[in-house]
Structures are given as structure tokens and as C-alpha cells.
Specification:
With 52 residues, the chain is mostly helical. It has helices spanning 9-18, 24-41. The radius of gyration is 14 Å and the shape is flat. It starts with 8 loop residues before the first helix and ends in an 11-residue tail after the last helix.
Length: 52
């Protein structure tokens, strides 16, 4: 089985916590990009209809 970090958001959270780097903001931007990709690939996580 191929490990896909995009399928495991907790892996990215652990990466952010464990990584001690001066470019923390770059990691945060990457994490937010992953979250947005997850929301696009899993419509069930995002609201699909707006209240009338």
C-alpha cells in the first residue's frame, strides 16, 4: 500500500509539531493548502448546499 500523507491530516499536524524550523510559516501555508485540497476532494466535509 502506498502511503499518501494527503490522506492522513494527522501526519501533517505531527509534522508541524515535531518540526523545529525558522520557516514555520511555510509549513503552515503547506498545511493549509493540504486542508483546502482535502475539502475539495471530499465534498462531504464541506457544506454542499446553502440555506435558502
Amino acid at each position: 500500500m502506498v502511503y499518501r500523507p494527503l490522506a492522513d491530516p494527522e501526519a501533517w499536524v505531527h509534522l508541524l509539531i515535531l518540526t523545529r524550523s525558522p520557516s514555520r510559516s511555510l509549513l503552515v501555508e503547506a498545511f493549509m493548502g493540504v486542508v483546502e485540497e482535502l475539502l475539495r476532494s471530499r465534498p462531504a466535509l464541506a457544506p454542499t448546499t446553502l440555506p435558502a
